[in-house]
Design goal:
With 248 residues, this protein is α/β, with parallel strands linked by helices. It has helices at residues 40-53, 89-96, 107-118, 163-167, 169-174, 179-198, 236-247; strands at residues 2-8, 12-19, 24-25, 30-33, 60-64, 68-69, 73-74, 102-106, 127-133, 137-143, 146-148, 157-158, 161-162, 202-206, 226-229.
C-alpha cells in the first residue's frame, strides 16, 4: 500500500510516495526550498509542487513544524510565518491540491510514529523521546508506545533562550561550532535538562544530523538514557505523515 507523505521544514519541503508495508519511500523524494517568508500560501504552493512532481492523485499526509490540533488547525509557528497561526491547514492544502484528502500532523510527532513502528523505537516500552535536530528542535514523546502529541520540547528554556536557539543543528552552523563542541556542551546540556524532566529510557536523535551521528554522539556524556540515531534518518517525517494519512 502506498500513501504520499510531505515533510514541511524550515529550509525545505520534501515528499514522496511511501510504501507502508516496508516503511520506506517508494520513489526517490523530491524537494523544493521553503519560501521566505514561509506564508501559508507560499508553503501550500511548495507542497503542490512536490505532489504534482509525482502526478499523485490519492490521500496526502503533511507534517507541519508546530502544534497541530484536530489534524487541521495550526496553533504555533516558530520557524514559519506567524500568519499560519489559527490557519486550517487541512482545508488550505486540500483546496490547493485540487480536493485531495489531506491529513496534517506535527512534524516531530510524524517522525516519532515512524521510528516507533519501523525504526529505532520498534518494540521499545517505557518512555521514549525522539528529538529532530534541524532548523529548530522538534520532539515526540511516547509512553509505552503511546504518543503524547504536540510536546514541542524545543521551546524549553535553556540559558535564558528557547532551547532550539542554543542546541539545534542550525545553532551549531550559525555559531560555527565543531561537532564535538556542540555535542559536548550545547546538546548534552539540553539532553540533561529533558532527562531531568522526563527520565526517558531512550532518546532517538532524528533530523538531518541523524545520518552524521558518528560525528557527535560519542561526545555526549553523563546522560543515563540510551541515545541512538533515527534509523529512518531524515525520511522519518515523510513516512510518518503517510502513516497518519493512511490511518485517517
Amino acid at each position: 500500500m502506498q500513501i504520499f507523505g510531505v515533510d514541511i521544514g524550515g529550509s525545505g519541503i520534501k515528499g514522496a510516495p511511501v510504501d507502508l508495508d516496508r516503511g520506506d519511500l517508494a520513489q526517490e523524494r523530491h524537494k523544493v526550498l521553503t519560501p521566505h517568508p514561509a506564508t501559508p500560501g507560499g508553503v501550500a504552493d511548495g507542497v503542490k509542487q512536490v505532489v504534482d512532481h509525482f502526478g499523485w492523485t490519492g490521500p496526502v499526509g503533511v507534517t507541519f513544524p508546530g502544534v497541530v490540533t484536530d489534524g487541521a488547525t495550526i496553533r504555533t509557528a516558530a520557524n514559519v510565518d506567524d500568519s499560519w497561526i489559527d490557519t486550517d491547514a487541512r482545508a488550505l492544502l486540500g483546496e490547493r491540491l485540487g480536493g485531495l484528502p489531506v491529513t496534517v500532523v506535527n512534524d516531530a510527532d510524524a517522525a516519532g510514529v515512524a521510528e516507533m513502528h519501523f525504526g529505532a523505537g520498534r518494540g521499545r516500552t517505557g518512555t521514549v523521546i525522539l528529538l529532530t535536530l534541524g532548523t529548530g528542535i522538534g520532539s515526540a514523546v511516547f509512553a509505552d508506545g503511546v504518543l503524547v502529541p504536540n510536546t514541542e520540547l524545543g521551546h524549553l528554556e535553556l540559558d535564558g533562550h528557547d532551547a532550539e536557539k542554543r542546541a539545534s543543528s542550525k545553532a551549531r552552523e550559525d555559531h560555527d561550532m565543531s561537532w564535538e563542541h556542540w555535542a559536548a556542551h550545547r546538546l548534552r546540556k539540553y539532553l540533561a535538562h529533558v532527562e531531568m524532566l522526563f527520565s526517558p529510557d531512550l532518546f532517538i536523535i532524528g533530523g538531518g544530523v541523524s545520518r552524521k551521528s558518528h560525528k557527535f554522539l560519542p561526545y555526549i556524556e553523563g546522560i543515563q538514557a540510551e541515545i541512538v540515531p533515527a534509523q529512518l534518518q531524515n525520511n522519518a517525517g515523510i513516512v510518518g505523515a503517510a502513516m497518519r494519512a493512511a490511518g485517517h
